Each structure stands twice: as C-alpha cells, then as structure tokens.
Recover the amino acids of this structure.
C-alpha cells in the first residue's frame, strides 16, 4: 500500500467513531500493537526532546528502506507514534520525505499539531523526516 | 455575602462549552479568567482614553496617564506599600525577578556572595539568580523542602551566613500549593542583613498581603494570575533600595535629560519603566484588584479554603490517587499522580471531558526531582470554581482509570 492508501484506511477506521473517548480507545489500541522497542535503544540520543511524555525513536536503514521502531511512556503518545509508524516505517527515504500527512487533520488530531503543544507530535514527525533526509543524502553520496 | 452564581456570571468564559461539554476550568495557577468589568475596562480604555502616557499635553494623554497612575495607587493600597513610587510596572513576575537580579545584582552582588532560593521555586525564581551568579561568580544554594513539600526551616537556618545577600522564595509554591512561612523566613534573613524577594505570583490573589507588615524587601506578582490582562506585573521594592539600584533598561520615559555626554535618569518609579509602558495592562490590573476588593479578599479566602478542603477530601476517595505535596498550610492547589497512569494521558482524557488541568512538571523541575517523579496532574482552584466541578473532576479521573486499565 502507498502511504496515501494507508492514511485513507486510517481515516476510514476513525470515521466509525464520533465520541472522542472511542477515538482515544483506538489510538491506545494502536499503541498496544506497536512492535516492541528494544530497551537498549532507550538512549538519551534517541529521546525526542520537547515532548511532555518521553518518546524514543530509533531508525535503521535496511535494503533501501528506513525501519523505525519507537516507544513512549505515555500511552496516548505511544498510540500516536504507532499511527505514524504504520504510515512511514518500512518506506524509502523518498517516500517518507514526500508524504503529506493529511490524515492527522482529517481524524481530528490536528489540534495536537501546534508547535508548542506539549505532546510533541510535530517533533516526532520532524525527527522521522530528518532521518529520511539523512539516509537519502547518504545514498546519494 | 458571597454569591457564587453572581460571581460565575461575572466571568463570561465560564459559560462556554468545550467539545460540547461545560468548561471546567481548574488551571487557575497557570492563569485566571477575566471578569466582565476588566474586559469592559480594556474596551473602554481603547474606545475613550487611548493615548501614550507621560508624554503629551493633550487631553487624551492626560486622561490615560491619570488612569495609569490611579492603577498604581490601587496596587499600592492593595499590598499596603508605603509609597506609590515603590510600585514598578513590569511584564510579569518573571520580568520583575529579572529586574531585581540584574539591577540589584549588578550593584550589590560580589564574588563569593550567596543567594538562597527554595528547592520548590518556579524556574522563574531560579534561573535569573543562576544567571546573576554566573556573571558575578556568586553561589546559588537551594533551601531543601521536606517530603510534605514544606521548606525545611532548620536547614534554612543552617544555610544562613553573613555571605547570604539575597533570599528569594515564593509566598505559595506553584506546583504544590504550599503556603510558605515567609514572615519567619524574612525575619531570619534580616538578622543576617540579607535582602528578601517574595514571589507572590501564587499568593497575592488568595489572601491579604501587607508588604510593610511582612517587611519584605521586594515583592513581585503577575496581573494575569489575579484576573487581569497578561503582560503586566508588579515589582514592589522598598524605596531606599530602589533608589540605590541602577536602571535595568534604557529608553524613553526613564530619563530626566539626555545628551550624548550624559543622561540623567528619572525618579522612581519611572527609572525602571523604560519605553512606553503597558498602561492598558496596568489599568486592567487596577480594575481587577478593585473587583476582588469589592468581593473582599477575606470572603474569597474563606470560600477558597472551603473549596480546597472539599477537594482534598473528595480526591482522597479516588482509588490509587497519590497526592504530591501535603503541607499543613496550602492554597487550592492539588498536585497528584493517578496510579501509574502518565499525567499526559490523564490530561488528554480530562481535556475531552471539558476539564482543564495542568500536567507535567509545572516549571518546577527541582520539585519533581525531589519527589523522584516525572510530573503530576495539578488542579488549581479560583473563587469561581464550585464543589460540583470538583465532583466532575473526580468522575473524570474514574473515567481516566477505566480507559487505562
């Protein structure tokens, strides 16, 4: 599936719920399904600074694709990052860089997108994109 | 008489809905809502009295200057300063502390001097002193707190020496709500000739403060936490101290005469008010203080104490709730953890229920280190909150627990 298709699927799943509590239940569920994060990668370098909860993000570049693993100590933050992983992990740097994350607005998470909002969704996205840019630059060397 | 319904009607924002639910605003330690009289006063100022203060001879400038200076007098009376010239308008508490740290610090702090701050201080009452100590090679020491969140008085006495030049403590801790015994702290500091700055940001709106009776050297607070606009605050300083302090910033309004050879500074308080001051903010602060004076701070204190006691008791009934900060004397601030639920998660769910609380470290990371935690959920009350809202908070917390278990 393309990142666009994955995002459309997420939008469809969220559209089943009107109540925010149900949407959060789903975000929590996504967090629970997140690939376990290797404890040895819980290094200070992998922490995304600026989030109210602690979020760790690790990237590996395998066969032309960036594989992200991540974790967070708050459950909703973990769910949000799982959502991002579903869309952006296991993609080429080019795909990651070019992906427009339109689903965030559509499922109502956009209010978490303001730069100063403490959950750091913006910072998570920026960090993911930075990895992609770095790997792309490396490939082009 | 304290009529809660009438009071709530005075605050337009309290009747709004968020996510289709009644707003329950329990983040008053961060900022307070504004009564209609303050909102209308700002509108009236812009509609009828706007002109730069202390400048021109025309009618409007005169009118606006009168309003600005009248606000200064209201504040002087409110905290019982001796003179209006002891009231300096600043951007807020942080700005006022920086003013003292730069100006007083520049003149009086020398290498090896000691500045004491409590472990429970807000970052704004730590960082300016840290910066001063770096500039002057002075030493910043923290006065430990005990496990209830109270300043350890014995340890404070041990830290006091002739080297201590400034003691800076909060009247009330922002993260825990502890009411510090500032009278005793000031008295002891003065025995060692140290000057005392009291951060009144979390105290001035809750109970009567008399700076002369306290005998503090500096007292600072923010307008927005006492029902006025943001961007306005107050530095009170004893006249003889302010007189000796050099200006903090240069510009218009703080001068008597300027030539390229020499500038003569204005008298107090203008010496510390460079540039066009936030006269709108000052007037809004004067109006807010008139409003609470009319309700009477004693009535406010009585009501808030009842509300705080109710909250303390009611929150006890929530399973797995652990209070952080259990001082004998507290304002209406309850900081707590909910089992092992992350404060951020709890805050996100409460938000969608229309309940506004603060989560995180509350700009007081050393306090969190003391308790070995990463953050708390903090509910903080104002006199427009009700017991029903506290009940709703407790129900909200049950909902949070259901969500994460």
């Amino acid at each position: 599936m393309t990142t666009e298709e994955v995002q459309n699927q997420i939008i469809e799943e969220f559209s089943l719920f009107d109540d925010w509590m149900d949407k959060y239940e789903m975000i929590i569920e996504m967090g629970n399904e997140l690939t376990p994060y290797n404890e040895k990668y819980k290094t200070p370098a992998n922490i995304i600074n600026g989030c109210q909860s602690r979020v760790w993000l690790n990237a590996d570049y395998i066969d032309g694709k960036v594989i992200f693993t991540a974790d967070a100590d708050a459950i909703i933050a973990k769910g949000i990052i799982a959502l991002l992983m579903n869309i952006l992990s296991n993609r080429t740097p080019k795909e990651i860089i070019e992906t427009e994350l339109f689903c965030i607005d559509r499922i109502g998470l956009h209010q978490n997108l303001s730069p100063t909002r403490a959950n750091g969704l913006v910072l998570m996205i920026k960090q993911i994109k930075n990895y992609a840019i770095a790997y792309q630059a490396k490939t082009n060397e | 008489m304290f009529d809660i319904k009438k009071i709530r009607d005075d605050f337009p924002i309290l009747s709004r809905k968020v996510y289709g639910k009644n707003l329950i605003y329990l983040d008053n330690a961060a900022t307070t809502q504004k009564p209609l009289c303050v909102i209308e006063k700002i509108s009236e100022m812009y509609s009828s009295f706007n002109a730069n203060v202390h400048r021109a001879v025309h009618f409007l400038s005169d009118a606006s200057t009168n309003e600005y200076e009248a606000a200064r007098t209201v504040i002087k009376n409110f905290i019982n300063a001796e003179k209006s010239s002891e009231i300096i308008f600043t951007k807020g508490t942080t700005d006022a502390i920086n003013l003292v740290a730069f100006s007083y610090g520049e003149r009086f702090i020398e290498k090896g001097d000691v500045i004491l701050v409590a472990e429970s201080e807000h970052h704004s009452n730590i960082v300016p002193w840290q910066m001063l100590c770096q500039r002057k090679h002075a030493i910043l020491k923290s006065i430990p707190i005990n496990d209830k969140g109270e300043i350890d008085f014995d340890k404070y006495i041990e830290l006091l020496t002739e080297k201590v030049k400034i003691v800076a403590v909060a009247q009330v801790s922002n993260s825990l709500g502890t009411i510090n015994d500032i009278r005793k702290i000031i008295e002891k500091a003065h025995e060692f000739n140290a000057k005392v700055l009291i951060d009144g940001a979390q105290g001035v709106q809750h109970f009567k403060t008399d700076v002369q009776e306290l005998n503090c050297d500096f007292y600072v607070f923010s307008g927005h936490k006492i029902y006025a606009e943001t961007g306005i605050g107050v530095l009170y300083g004893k006249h003889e101290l302010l007189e000796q302090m050099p200006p903090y910033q240069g510009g218009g309004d703080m001068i008597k005469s300027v030539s390229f050879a020499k500038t003569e500074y204005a008298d107090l308080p203008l010496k510390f008010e460079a540039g066009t001051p936030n006269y709108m903010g000052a007037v809004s602060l004067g109006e807010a203080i008139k409003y609470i004076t009319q309700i009477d701070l004693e009535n406010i204190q009585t009501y808030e104490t009842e509300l705080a006691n109710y909250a303390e008791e009611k929150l006890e009934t929530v399973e797995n709730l652990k209070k952080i900060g259990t001082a004998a004397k507290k304002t209406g601030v309850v900081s707590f953890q909910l089992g092992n639920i992350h404060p951020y998660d709890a805050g996100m769910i409460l938000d969608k229920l229309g309940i506004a609380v603060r989560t995180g470290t509350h700009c007081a990371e050393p306090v969190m280190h003391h308790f070995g935690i990463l953050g708390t959920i903090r509910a903080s009350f104002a006199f427009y909150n009700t017991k029903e809202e506290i009940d709703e908070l407790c129900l909200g917390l049950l909902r949070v627990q259901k969500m994460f278990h």
Observations:
- Residues 59-78 of chain B form the longest helix (20 residues).
- The interface with chain A takes residues 19, 342-345, 348-349, 352, 359-360, 374-375, 399, 403-404 of chain B (CB under 8 Å).
- Chain B is about 40% helix and 15% strand.
- The CA atoms of residues 107 and 245 of chain B lie 7 Å apart.
